[in-house]
Specification:
The protein has 154 residues and is α+β, with helices and mostly antiparallel strands. The protein has one domain: Orthogonal Bundle (Cytochrome Bc1 Complex, Chain D, domain 2). The protein has 5 helices and 4 strands; from the N terminus they run βαααββαβα. Strands 1-4 form a two-stranded antiparallel ribbon. Strands 2-3 form a two-stranded antiparallel sheet. A hairpin with a 5-residue loop joins strand 2 and strand 3. It is globular, with a radius of gyration of 15 Å.
């Protein structure tokens, strides 16, 4: 049985906020901050999965994208929401944060954005509140590989 835990996933439509979600800060209470601090460290993405494992991860990531309604905020193939950045071409680009920092959108960055989207406020995306949705570590990792697979999907 997969261990499930609640992680912050953006469903801005449900909140009626009308704003993007990528790594946004929100007015989290002490309990929310404690939960975010208890998140495990990112998996080791330094070893590339076998071709068969990668194909399975991408398929599972696409399923998680639909199951968790990521499409309500994040577009792919011209379909989906517009309240968050499109996943198409997102991987390996640079994120610029409101505090002036930057980071490459690599696997570790994407994983952190999925499990703790309040970690950094990306420039141009206003802060908002985000509901909690259940997602497990395997789904988060699969979403990372799915998003990575869309890097050249233009």
């Amino acid at each position: 049985m997969l261990r499930r835990r609640a992680l912050t996933i953006v469903v801005a439509v449900a909140l009626g906020s009308g704003v993007g979600c990528e790594r946004s800060k929100h007015g989290a209470g002490a309990d929310d901050r404690a939960q975010a601090q208890a998140q495990p460290s990112a998996p080791d993405f330094s070893t590339e999965p076998t071709a068969a494992k990668l194909a399975a991860l991408i398929a599972a990531g696409e399923e998680a994208y639909l199951d968790h309604s990521c499409d309500s905020c994040h577009a792919i193939e011209g379909r989906g929401g517009s309240r968050g950045p499109s996943f198409v071409g997102l991987y390996s680009t640079r994120a610029r944060f409101a505090d002036g920092g930057q980071a490459e959108r690599d696997e570790a960055y994407l994983y952190e954005s999925i499990v703790d989207p309040a970690a950094q406020l990306v420039e141009g995306w206003p802060p908002n509140s985000m509901p909690l949705a259940p997602i497990d570590d395997d789904e988060a990792v699969a979403l990372v590989y799915y998003i990575r697979s869309l890097a050249d999907a233009d």
